[in-house]
Amino acid sequence: MGFCINCGNQHQDGVRFCRFCGTAQPSEQLLARLRAESEQIRLLVLQMQQQTNAQNDAYARLEAMRLQAEAAARNQQNQQYRPPGW
Ligand SMILES: [Zn+2]
Fold it and tell me: What total of structural domains would you count in the chain?
């Protein structure tokens, strides 16, 4: 069973035209190609998500380093600008 690409009504596999709206239906060959393409896209999206996760990890590590450097700089500044007599 398949579904019309235009009206969505169910029809038998292999029909060339929808019996409800008359729209030409994609051939099995085209459907197979589209399924293969959609699988490829799904894999690409997965890959991109993994890359984004890795990037977010790297950003998180960089941010932690930046905060440490900032804190260290603040400590040094406090020591440098400590008023005389302390
Ligand atoms: Zn139809």
Answer: 1
